Amino acid sequence: MGNNVVVLGTQWGDEGKGKIVDLLTERAKYVVRYQGGHNAGHTLVINGEKTVLHLIPSGILRENVTSIIGNGVVLSPAALMKEMKGLEDRGIPVRERLLLSEACPLILDYHVALDVAREKARGAKAIGTTGRGIGPAYEDKVARRGLRVGDLFDKATFADKLKEVMEYHNFQLVNFYKAEAVDYQKVLDDVMAIADILTSMVVDVSDLLDQARQRGDFVMFEGAQGTLLDIDHGTYPYVTSSNTTAGGVATGSGRARVMWITYWASLKRTQLASVQVRSRPSCLMKLASSSASRVTNSAPPPAVVVVPAGWMRSQSVARCRLTPCPASA
Question: What does the protein in this record do (predicted)?
Answer without folding.
Answer: Plays an important role in the de novo pathway of purine nucleotide biosynthesis. Catalyzes the first committed step in the biosynthesis of AMP from IMP.
